Amino acid sequence: MKMEALHALFLEHPTICTDTRKVTDNCLFFALKGPNFNGNAFAQEALDKGATYAIIDETDYNTSDKFILCEDVLETLQQLATYHRKQCKAKIISLTGSNGKTTTKELINAVISKKYKTIATKGNLNNHIGVPLTLLSIQEDTEMAIVEMGANHIGEIEMLCNIAQPDFGYITNFGKAHLEGFGSVEGVIQGKSELYNFIRSNGGHIFFNADDPIQKEKLNSCTKKIGFSTTDHQFYNIEFLKANPFVTLKVEETTITTQLIGKYNFPNCCAAIIMGKYFNVPLEEIKSAIESYQPQNNRSQILEKNGFKIILDAYNANPTSMKAALENFSLMDAEHKTLIIGDMFELGTTATEEHQAIADLAKELNFQDVYLVGKNFFGTQTDLLQFETFDALKAHLEDQPLKKGTLLIKGSRGMALERVLDLV
């Protein structure tokens, strides 16, 4: 089936499903494959559950006119997304970076949606499957689409850009994330910069943090750029006021008090502000959008439970975000600060060195209590409390409960440290 015909079919049945557990009536089922599953084997089940058609790529399963046979289901999904994107009037804002992507995406969407009909990446569906699904959620009346892009190796952002064809781009930062795939921080910079390279090559506009020397240098010769800075007056100036605990900033003569903790969230807010200004969203609407935004899904959430004030930041972690979180926590006005941190994943050969550096920092910052959790932290040389598994931590805390006060919980997603909430 030609792409034009498949797209016409999609417009008649604009719901895409890739999981038979989530099939809805009249959807299109794309039989994707993975290391441990073959979607072709579930295509008939999808039809039985209400899917109108199933897109497959193995002839053995092509048993009725309800199956659409293609060469590769994933490539077809991606090509359909690009075709659909080109038929729509929506402008695409893409963003990537080592830390803060999802929070920044949510802030941008909150601001831009004050004036425009928007869609944005749901959750962190930011990979080679999530980006196409986001693009296919663009409707006829959508004016702006905010598309988050994640990557763990060089070439991935370029591939996602070729699918999404963004008009605008923003990189949050370059940090020590996914070093196993990128190989080094230099690899991270090269990989993430693929977004700026694509935008620049295709005549689009770039938003950037002019206080980031790496971004400033890379965009030195770029003419279509919109920057923010706390000091350089050739760019849009935004003043950082405080983050104790919530980020407060000043734009022109307007003070904005967010519900986001940590100075590391300041540039995330700035990105949303300059995009709002660029797209002519009134400043009072920008203020309203940012002040009303509340983090969700274990991302720097502030919770109160049983006399504890808890900062739950257990969605993800890497050396850059961990260092920022610990330093911010050390500066907070709080009684009896307790730190529970878990292993940082995907660090490759640097894992030992990076975990030792964080353990040393946790010791240096003199928190009242520190608990290190996970195999990597268990292997560090320190006199802080170390637990190889979560169950070992749990057993310890059941015997010696945490002392009341302020608690920071941070670790990689695989550590699932939100389970600590059941122990306070």
From TrEMBL:
Residues of the Mur ligase N-terminal catalytic domain: 16-62
Assigned GO CC terms: cytoplasm
Gene3D superfamilies: Mur ligase, C-terminal domain, Mur-like, catalytic domain, MurE/MurF, N-terminal domain
Function: Involved in cell wall formation. Catalyzes the final step in the synthesis of UDP-N-acetylmuramoyl-pentapeptide, the precursor of murein.
Record-stated family: Belongs to the MurCDEF family. MurF subfamily.
Domain Mur ligase central residue range list: 96-275
One of the GO BP terms on file: cell wall organization
Xref: PANTHER family: UDP-N-ACETYLMURAMOYL-TRIPEPTIDE--D-ALANYL-D-ALANINE LIGASE
Record key words, sorted: ATP-binding, Cell cycle, Cell division, Cell shape, Cell wall biogenesis/degradation, Cytoplasm, Ligase, Nucleotide-binding, Peptidoglycan synthesis
Main localization of the protein described in the UniProt heading: cytoplasm
E.C. numbers: 6.3.2.10
Reaction catalysed by this enzyme: D-alanyl-D-alanine + UDP-N-acetyl-alpha-D-muramoyl-L-alanyl-gamma-D-glutamyl-meso-2,6-diaminopimelate + ATP = UDP-N-acetyl-alpha-D-muramoyl-L-alanyl-gamma-D-glutamyl-meso-2,6-diaminopimeloyl-D-alanyl-D-alanine + ADP + phosphate + H(+)
Localization: Cytoplasm
GO molecular function, one term: ATP binding
Protein name: UDP-N-acetylmuramoyl-tripeptide--D-alanyl-D-alanine ligase
Keyword Zinc recorded: no
Pathway: Cell wall biogenesis; peptidoglycan biosynthesis
Enzyme class: ligase
InterPro entries named among the record's database cross-references: Mur-like_cat_sf (IPR036565), Mur_ligase_C (IPR004101), Mur_ligase_C_dom_sf (IPR036615), Mur_ligase_cen (IPR013221), Mur_ligase_N (IPR000713), MurCDEF_CellWall_CoF430Synth (IPR051046), MurE/MurF_N (IPR035911), UDP-N-AcMur_synth (IPR005863)
Pfam family, one: Mur_ligase_M
Keyword tRNA-binding: no
Species: Flagellimonas zhangzhouensis
Binding site for ATP: 97-103
Signal peptide: none
NCBIfam families (alphabetical): murF
Start and end residues of each Mur ligase C-terminal domain: 299-376
